[in-house]
Design goal:
There is one protein chain. The longest helix has 17 residues. The chain is an alpha+beta fold. Helix 2 crosses helix 6. The termini are far apart. 45% of the residues lie in helices and 17% in strands.
C-alpha cells in the first residue's frame, strides 16, 4: 500500500492552477482608464491581456490613430511578459547595448511607456497597454489613476 501511494505522489501534476484576469475586471479597468483619457480629450487605444499575453479586452476610441492599436497591445504584452512597466525597460537597458539589442529583437516587445503588469494579491494576472495620448507619460498617468481607483498595485518603477 505504501509503495502505491509513493508512486502516485511522485507523478507530476497534469494541470496547474493559474490566476488570470476576469473579463469583467478587464472591462472595468478599460472603462476607468478611458475616463482618465477622456478628461484630457485624448483618443486612446486601451488593451488588456491575460497573464499569458493573450488579448482579453480592447477599446479603440473614435478618431484614434490606427498605429496605436498594435502599440497598445504590444505594451500590454511587454509588461506582462516581463512583469514590469514598459517605461522601466529603457532605463534598465540604455547603458547595456547587448541587452538593448536583445530585447529589441523580441517580437511584440516595446520599451515605450504605457504598459503595466496588473498585479492582484502580489500575483500578475494580466497586462494593460495604452497608446495614443500626447506622450508616453500621459499613457502612464491614465493607467496609474485607474489602478489607484481600483486598488491595483501601482509600483511604477520596479524591474521584475
Amino acid at each position: 500500500m505504501a509503495r502505491a501511494a509513493q508512486r502516485r505522489a511522485a507523478k507530476p501534476a497534469a494541470t496547474v492552477p493559474r490566476a488570470t484576469i476576469s473579463i469583467a475586471f478587464a472591462e472595468r479597468l478599460i472603462a476607468e482608464t478611458a475616463k482618465e483619457s477622456a478628461k484630457l480629450g485624448r483618443n486612446t487605444v486601451i488593451a488588456v491581456c491575460d497573464e499569458s499575453g493573450v488579448l482579453k479586452a480592447f477599446r479603440r476610441s473614435d478618431n484614434s490613430h490606427v498605429r496605436s492599436v498594435g502599440l497598445a497591445i504590444t505594451k500590454a504584452r511587454s509588461a506582462v511578459g516581463f512583469e514590469t512597466p514598459t517605461h522601466v525597460f529603457y532605463e534598465a537597458f540604455k547603458n547595456d547595448p547587448r541587452s538593448m539589442m536583445g530585447v529589441n529583437a523580441l517580437d511584440d516587445f516595446t520599451i515605450l511607456g504605457g504598459g503595466f503588469p496588473i498585479r492582484v494579491g502580489g500575483q500578475v494576472i494580466g497586462g494593460i497597454g495604452v497608446s495614443g495620448a500626447q506622450s508616453s507619460q500621459e499613457d502612464i498617468d491614465f493607467i496609474v489613476a485607474a489602478f489607484r481607483r481600483l486598488g491595483i498595485d501601482t509600483d511604477v518603477s520596479a524591474f521584475a
